[in-house]
């Protein structure tokens, strides 16, 4: 953000960097806007939770499903485990007898 000042003699517009006071105002405005957004989001979430009123069993089922999905995604197939194992140097050499 820059300060716009009009020179009376040359009738030209010059843009100057904001002053310390101007920077403080800009920062405080941004902080205020962010805080307002946070409050709005929090209020919306609380309102949505009250409207839905999920029972504990539904919440537990959703958590269990999420945990099982994460567990299954982290499992490796036996073929992947074999491929990841380090192979000793001697077995890598091919010999024809």
Automatic annotation (TrEMBL):
State where composition is biased (Polar residues). Answer: 1-11
Protein origin, superkingdom: Eukaryota
Q: Region (Disordered) spans which residues?
A: 1-25
**Which protein are we looking at?**
3873_t:CDS:1
Tell me which species this is from.
Answer: Paraglomus occultum
